[in-house]
Amino acid sequence: MAQVRDEILLQKIALKLKALREKKGLSQEQLYNETDVHIARIETAKNNIRISTLSKLCDYFDISLSEFFKKL
Amino acid sequence: MAQVRDEILLQKIALKLKALREKKGLSQEQLYNETDVHIARIETAKNNIRISTLSKLCDYFDISLSEFFKKL
DNA sequence: CACAACAATGACATATTTGTCAGTATTTGT
DNA sequence: ACAAATACTGACAAATATGTCATTGTTGTG
To answer: A7-63 belongs to which CATH class?
Structure first.
């Protein structure tokens, strides 16, 4: 089902974003202060992130969207 | 500004999706019948597409998200 | 255990995407 | 130019992402 595929995708994105954040040693709150993105629900795969939100985060983490999805 | 960067990103995504669709020789309506995605507003860069919507389209076009953004 | 820092979750408000459909504009082929 | 196909746009409803704040749960450290 498409729903299941989406859940898997969102889960992968969630884990990847969490890993990027932790690599920088930031708390969710600190990341919010830097990017204005509330990450909690994204990191728990509750939200179907918009492309501009993901783009903003990738910019902050110095990774291209292509790179982000390559090692997903 | 972030707004401008988003507009550029959405414009690139729009053009890329249109090119993929036209490569398959499909009208917007035909693509909708295949994917259940209304593409008109996305191809005119009016919408900030969600990741699962883009993923669905990439699946249909047989291109990975990483590939999609690589040649953006 | 107790405390502190952090993450997860619920509730609510706001903004935006998407579906849907109708109407208009544009393109394409003859 | 004409007709048909296609694309674009506006309006409305429904679903959902995100902001915001409060509360609860978790984790690590003394």
So the answer is: mainly alpha
